[in-house]
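# nightly structure sweep
# worker-07 picked up a monomer target from the shared queue
# config: single-sequence mode, recycle default, output format = structure tokens
# input follows
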Amino acid sequence: MAEIIVVDDDPKLCRMLSDALGMDGCHRVRRAADGTELRGLLAEAPADVVILDVGLPGEDGFRLARWLRERHDPGIIMLTGADTVIDRVAGLETGADDYLTKPCALAELRARIGAVLRRRRPTGSDRLPDGVVRFGPYRFDRKRFALTDDGGAEVPLTPMELDLVAAFALHPGKALSRDDLMRLAPPRGEEGFDRSIDSRVNRLRRKLEADPARPELVKTLHGAGYVHPG
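# output follows
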């Protein structure tokens, strides 16, 4: 169980996020309205991940992120209402692990939290050769451009399906719109007649998901596209 602190001066949003993240029992979630309350919570118990609003009163999220990185070193996911490159870069330069624009989908936030936790809790069994990344129970080899199961057997996929796997496997926790996927996995060769991202994702799910009706590898974000939780 991960320890998470949500820091936001909007009490309604803070309560909504903390309740949603804690409802499945996988995380213990506490909440704070500002830097003072955050420090008090950390004095009681450390946190694995801090979800930190940029626009806090008094000490803003950027200053708190620097303080967190120096004193406690949790995973840090910053939330902001401003979707500009400058703000994103500033957030990451303070030491944040990830950056999301509000309002964000809860499924994407959960996926980003999971990805941050996995990156910060490496185990011997998680270590993979260079150029190889996990894709659920599979392994995607960027150099060979191939997908294998844990037994090392190659999974038969078409080139365009492998393009989709690469797009998701190399962007864990990131919401990819249909336009993003069309750019990352464009139609090619004899497969080019089918330009529907939705139908291609459905075919990929039928081949790779344990239960295509309840996908875990590639989740739908209504109104946003798709995400691989990582």
